[in-house]
Amino acid sequence: MSFFGKLFGKKEKETLDEGLNKTKEGFLAKITKAIAGKSTVDAEVLDNLEEALVNADVGIDTTIQIIERLEKRVQQDKYLDTSELNRILQEEIEAILVDASDNSYKNFEVPANKKPYIILVVGVNGVGKTTTIGKLAHNYKKAGYDVLLGAADTFRAAAVDQLTIWSERVGVPIVKQAMGSDPSAVAFDTVKSAISRGSDIVIIDTAGRLHNKLHLMDELTKIKRVISKILPDAPHEVMLVLDGSTGQNALEQAKHFTAATDVSSLTITKLDGTAKGGVVLAIAHQFKIPVKFIGIGEKIDDLLIFDKHEFVDSLFKL
Question: Which residues contact 201 (CB under 8 A, 6 or more apart)?
Answer without folding.
Answer: 110, 116, 117, 119, 140, 145, 146, 147, 148
